[in-house]
Write a structure and sequence with these properties.
alpha/beta; 5 helices
């Protein structure tokens, strides 16, 4: 019987487009392979989960679309469809002065202990 793949935890600390985009690429790729994935955003990384969606408005999005690369909005939709657990760090939200009400639907607010428990013995990637 094949061994189940370990969970993948992705820790997003950066609010920049490139790191947020690649966090979503990693998350959706791993989930498509059947891995349990938790995407945990803290500090400026919490911008990825804003309902107002500032990252899809970045100029780089148009360049990606022109080159046939999925952008942030597409990847966020895929992450939701694939059942990726999305957590905004409670302390990170406070540090960035972002109210929980400003987050996209389906994004949990929790702490690092919740993230670590979700990943367990799995792998963690930090961006």
């Amino acid at each position: 019987m094949p061994r189940e793949a370990p969970p993948l935890g992705i820790l997003l600390l950066s609010g920049g487009h490139e790191r947020a985009h690649y966090a979503l690429v990693l998350a959706t790729g791993a989930a498509a392979l059947g891995r349990a994935v938790t995407l945990f955003a803290s500090n400026a990384g919490c911008r990825l989960f804003l309902a107002a969606a500032p990252l899809p408005e970045e100029p780089r999005e148009a360049a990606l679309a022109a080159r046939g690369v999925a952008g942030i909005a597409e990847l966020l939709a895929a992450a939701e469809e694939l059942g990726i657990r999305r957590i905004a760090c409670e302390a990170g939200l406070r540090a960035e002065d972002i109210p929980a009400a400003a987050l996209r639907p389906g994004v949990e607010v929790a702490g690092v202990v919740t993230f670590l428990a979700a990943v367990g013995e799995g792998q963690i990637v930090t961006l």
